[in-house]
Amino acid sequence: MVQPAVERTGAVTTFLKFVHLAAIALWSGGLVALPFLFWQRRRLAAGLDLDRLHRVARLVYVELTSPAAFVAIASGTALIFLQSTFTEWFSLKMALVAIMAMLHVVAGLVLAQLFLPEGRFGWLSYLALTSAYILLITAIIWVVLAKPHLDANQFAVQLFEPGGLGRWLHQSFGEIRMPTP
Question: How far is it, in rounded angstroms, from Cα 173 to Cα 181?
Fold first, then answer.
């Protein structure tokens, strides 16, 4: 028996939501755990313990957190089109997710430098990165659950009319077009 398209879409949407939430949980948990792992570097000199910590940190970043980020973003992108979520609060959420992705890259850059012989990750770095992750994750959760009413017409009237983004970029940064050869 063939199911109506609405029922099939509902099942796919529900499945993608579960995948999306699981991936977000793994991504967020990995990002919060990484600064703690990085901070453990301060006590260790070259040797077996440092190598073990390096392997664990790489496992968390490369094999758990990064694939979870990819799945979260991919499933979230599919959900955007399945649910037609095109509202101002969602734009704010997407901006916060973009910042989270950038901070994910920061963790990778720290990881690449931290386990060199002169690598360091002090208390202030630990506090700053952990606080940034927790604040950002909390902000994303709040925006998704509260769905605050934001009126783009109050703060960016010209940005949302046709050609508005191009005009804003030109006013802000000047001519940014690539010359053609």
Answer: 22
* Nearest one of 73, 80, 34 to 53, comparing CA atoms: 34
Name the token pair of 9: 């879409």
**Residue at 104: amino acid letter:** H
Distance CA 86, CA 79 (A): 11
Q: Judge if pTM exceeds 0.90.
A: no
Query: What pLDDT digit, counting tens, does each position of 140-180 carry?
Result: 999 888 877 777 666 666 666 677 777 777 777 777 666 66
Tokens of 25: 């949980």
Contact 38, 110 (CB under 8 A): yes
| Per-residue pLDDT tens digits for 51-65 | 787 788 888 998 999
Written as one letter, the residue type at 38 is F
Q: How far is CA 102 from CA 25, 81, 99, 115, 124, in A?
A: 17, 24, 5, 21, 19
